[in-house]
Amino acid sequence: HYSSRYKRAVTLPATYNIDILPVVDSTLYDRFYNINNGDINLTINNIADYLAVLFASVGMRFNTLALETRTLKIRMISPLVLTTSNQLPYTASDLENENGVSKINAETLLRLFKNWLIGNKNLVPNDHAMFFTAVKIYGGLDSGIKFNITKGLAYVGTMCKAGGNSSSVVEDKGAYQSEGVAAHELGHCLGSRHDGENNVCFSADRYIMSDSSYPETDSNALHPWRFSSCSSTYVLSLLESLETNNALLQGCLINATGSIEVGDYTVSADVQCQLFYGELSYVCRNSSKASLEDLCDEFYCSIPGTSMCERMIAATGTCCGYQKKCYQGQCVDAAQGQCNINQICPFGDQKGVVLDGKTCADLPSTFCYDNAVYLRCCKTCEKYKTDRQGCTYGDKQLNCNANECGSTFTSGDFQSLAYNFVCCSTCKSDCTDAENLWLSSGTYTCNDYIFNLGNKNVCYQISGNKKIYEYACCKSCEAARDTTNTACPWGNVKTIACAALQSKSPGYICKETELQSCCRTCGLLSSGVSTSTALIPSTITSPTNTPTTTSTTNTPTTTTSTIKKPATIISTPTEPTTSTSTSTPKIIVPTVEECDKKKMLYCDASVKNTSAICVLCILIVVYNYDKMDVQLIK
Question: So which residues are the catalytic ones?
Fold first, then answer.
């Protein structure tokens, strides 16, 4: 196809254009045809849009090659869509059937496609032809062993060679899952071999030219969107060879007549699920990663007709937050006007039945206290949401009776709890604090313990099987709540455990276990804020009134907490403090060196609450997984 191109220039350009002709077979066409309810024009347009997004992602991957002064630009020619089986490079006799699934040998398909290209003389001139099929592709050995992990195949180092040699085949089932395969096969055609194949690189590092799938680690998590140094060497060598033998002067990689330069696209996660599993699929809200930005690594799609969700790799351009999208595995700023999604409820309500045969719209607001329901029905729950402390979504149980207000539950899940607390909307009551918070070494009011002693993260804790927030310190916890951060309302769960994150650079993305313990610090890091001061709790203002009502003993079955916390037993200081005294005791503030010797967090002596007995800098809080000790240094 190259001889028909016009010889345009003797001076070689700094940017080479790879014109790719996508050839789509009838099996993939049928998938899009069914999704678009038989509308042929819409099907063709959607296939073109789909491939444009896919090749935009391929182009972004090729931007990671180090080619000295050269760059490669991917351009997509309008796809050639084969709508009937008699147009295909292969016939029914070339297919194998295994448990009802059609398969074809990768080498056979590539050879047949090469011959098909030779036989079709009137194709649009191109640098590379890529065949997309929904048929299962498998690799194999002469011994008869088949490898079902094979997703594509290409000739190596054949770019700019005529006779159908510059070609590849790719298995595509939708949802942009083949963008990595397409980049891999195009890399082969540009001369790159697998990492670890007689070179100094390693496939286990998971770069684009890895020979298989390998475990993800912190160091290689972003490598699937990048080429290795070995790949850069191979591609550069091929380009230098083409420049030397004047193959480029025949038009290959230079002319772009009739080609479309792929642009900047965005796509929703829900659309990817529907492209892969059908229009009834959606993102599984309760199976997502720890934060919205984490979906650039992976998310989960529902399998229609089942209760199962399956892992999906996010396509480049997937919206991952308000005006943010995925790029090379990371959540980055999107262009103006892109990804204007709701940060609190990015996917909206889950489709269909979510609980007890009811949709989100059918469920009473009571169910929004259940975090699993909230994740599925966040759009509806946000409509129900009120500003009433402790009564965010109204009554905490169904069928509340105003005649019972003022009483106490004597049995069931809410045994010993005040009726007004559980049926807060019906009884029109706000949540209150217990008169005292009993701990093993002393008695405190919620107000003193949370505000004066600076322990607002106690609101996360569970004592025995009872949640402090719900059974004892509802009002104080609500007053201490950061209403701007629903995922981290009371700061870090384990303050000292978060000290290890202080060395992380701004932009660091926490692991799920780190996020569960250190939500505030992790939030600052992901926002690009230094954590040099993030580990010291901010001072908070105490409410003016101290509640006097007594506490109850059992917890309700639901909670308004938005993150999962480990169960923690609370124990008080081994050296009791004069915690409620308003006079200031003689205090020796520990030095940096003293704290360092004890491997404890140092608190700046200038950070203090002058109205309280305990200053932040003399409270050393040591956490482990199941115990919290508070020690006062005198």
Answer: 185
- 128 vs 562 pLDDT, higher one: 128
Q: Residues within the annotated binding site for Zn(2+)?
A: 184, 188, 194
CA distance 507 to 520: 14
| Predicted confidence (pLDDT) per residue in 76-122, tens digit | 999 999 999 999 999 999 999 888 889 999 999 999 999 999 999 89
Q: Take residue 307 and report the two structure tokens written for it.
A: 């209760």
* DSSP structure class, residue 11: S
Tell me which of 3.40.50.300, 3.30.1330.10, 3.40.1620.60, 3.40.50.1470 is the CATH number of domain 269-333: 3.40.1620.60
- Work out the average pLDDT over 451-468: 76
Query: Angle at Cα 328 formed by Cα 323 and Cα 330, nearest 5°?
Result: 50
Give the Cα separation of 366 and 387 in Å (integer): 15
383-401: pLDDT as tens digits: 898 877 778 899 999 999 8
Superfamily of domain 15-260: Collagenase (Catalytic Domain) (3.40.390.10)
Task: Give the domain ranges of the chain.
Answer: 15-260, 269-333
Q: For the chain, what is the mean pLDDT?
A: 76
How do strand 80-81 and strand 101-105 relate by DSSP bridges? unpaired
pTM for this model (two decimals) = 0.60
Cα-only R_g, the chain: 31
* Residue type for position 162: A
Question: If we measure between CA atoms, which residue out of 524, 518, 536 comes closest to residue 607?
Answer: 536
